[in-house]
From TrEMBL:
Gene3D superfamilies: NAD(P)-binding Rossmann-like Domain. Pfam families: adh_short_C2 (PF13561). InterPro entries: NAD(P)-bd_dom_sf, Sc_DH/Rdtase_CS, SDR_fam. This is NAD(P)-dependent dehydrogenase, short-chain alcohol dehydrogenase family. NCBIfam families: PRK07035.1, PRK07231.1. CDD domains: SDR_c (cd05233). Belongs to the short-chain dehydrogenases/reductases (SDR) family.
């Protein structure tokens, strides 16, 4: 009996935003391990180069490219570079997001509101538009949006962030419905509390952590690597009939 090829990504080009650390780094490394050439991206090129170098040192293929997804010119520029350097894109993982203000919703600052919307909604949307155009030219692809459990059940003092994550879940369905005809699938991953820099304020505060753990049936925080397997599934042929789905990877929190 031969092993399944369903999770092989040989010959695929994958772009992962926010791949210099945390969940994005774990995703980039797993996709590369499965054979994809991974474009490792975030705002700061240094962190991306470190991750790309680590992938190459393990025998994989990776290229570091900086892109601030909250800046439209940078999105346009990065796709011009992808077209020129690779000529195609098979997998887009929209993972980079921001959550600049932790406060009661009534205290939301306009600047924080705008930044969160620009990165988490406009950024994901136009990254998907650009990737979708490129995928359409080559018969299809897979877009994976890293949303959050907060898109379903808003996080305390994470008002506008939770609103944007709900938008990402709906955006996933929009792209799934309208791009299926081009062979493009689009799915969302909804991580639960995961041990990264992003969540450090929550994980390092014993009171907040214990309150969170009380609501998680598996009674622990996730490791970034525990998000990557679900993304591999959604990126690969294993999920060829799955589109428009929001996949909870949350230790049972939303159940
Ligand atoms: N950790 C959790 O508990 C949790 C739970 C639910 C959902 N999520 C979601 O998971 C995703 C990844 O979060 P994480 O916990 O892995 O965060 P993280 O460890 O803080 O990493 C964030 C990554 O995004 C990059 N980044 C930040 N702003 C960016 C921008 N405007 N443009 C491009 N890159 C940017 C950062 O690099 P640079 O600083 O170099 O840009 C970094 O690579 C996010 O969508 C988050 O909402 C996380």
């Amino acid at each position: 009996m031969s092993k399944t090829q369903l999770f092989d990504l040989d010959g695929k080009i994958a772009f992962v935003s926010g791949a210099s650390r945390g969940i994005g780094e774990a995703i980039a490394k797993l996709l590369a391990q499965q054979g994809a050439h991974v474009i490792v991206s975030s705002r700061r090129i240094d962190g991306c180069k470190q991750v790309a170098d680590a992938i190459i040192a393990e025998g994989g293929q990776a290229t570091a490219i900086a892109c601030h997804i909250g800046e439209m010119e940078q999105i346009t520029a990065v796709f011009a570079q992808i077209r020129e350097q690779f000529g195609r894109l098979d997998i887009l993982v929209n993972n980079a997001a921001t959550n600049p203000q932790f406060c009661n919703v009534l205290d939301t600052d306009l600047g924080a509101f705008q930044k969160t919307v620009d990165v988490n909604i406009r950024g994901y949307f136009f990254m998907s538009v650009e990737a979708g155009k490129l995928m359409r030219e080559h018969g299809g692809g897979s877009i994976i949006n890293v949303a959050s459990i907060n898109g379903v059940s808003p996080g305390v003092y994470q008002g506008i962030y939770s609103v944007t994550k709900a938008a990402v879940i709906n955006m996933t369905k929009v792209f799934a419905k309208e791009c299926a005809q081009f062979g493009i699938r689009c799915n969302a991953l909804l991580p639960g509390l995961t041990d990264t820099k992003f969540a450090s304020a929550l994980v390092s505060n014993e009171k907040i952590l214990n309150t969170a753990l009380a609501q998680i049936p598996l009674k622990r925080v996730a490791a970034p690597s525990e998000m990557a397997g679900a993304v591999l599934y959604l990126a690969s042929e294993a999920s060829s009939y799955t589109t428009g789905v929001a996949l909870n990877v949350d230790g049972g929190f939303l159940s």
